[in-house]
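## retry 2 of 3
previous attempt timed out at serialization; input unchanged, resubmitting
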Amino acid sequence: MQALRYSLASVWLLTALASLAWPQEESLALLARTGLAGHAALAALYAGITADLLMGILTLLKPSHWQRWLWPAQAAVILTYSVIILIQLPEIALHPFGMLIKNIPILTILWILWRNATKEKTHAV
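## retry succeeded, writing output
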C-alpha cells in the first residue's frame, strides 16, 4: 500500500508544482473558457493548486483517522475536474498528453486504498 500512496502523492504534488510553473496567463485563458474570469479565475487557479498540494501532503502523512474520507475526497476532486474538462474543454479530455482516461487507474488506486482503510477500521473494532 505504501507504493500506491507514494505514487499517488507524487501525482498530486507534481500537479501542484506544474500548475505553479505553467504560464499563469495560459491557465487563466483555459479557466475563462469554463466561465471563470478575473478574480474568480485567479481564486479557482490557486484553490486548485492548494487542493492538489494538500491532497499530496495528506497522502504522504497518511493519518489513519483521515483515511476513510481522504480517498473519497480525492476521488471527488478528480471527478469534478474531469467533468468540468469533459463539458467545457473536451479537446483537452481527448488530447494524448492529458487524456482523462488516465484518471481510471488513479481512481482504482483510491478505491484500493479506501477499501484497505475500511477493512483496517473494521478489524480494529
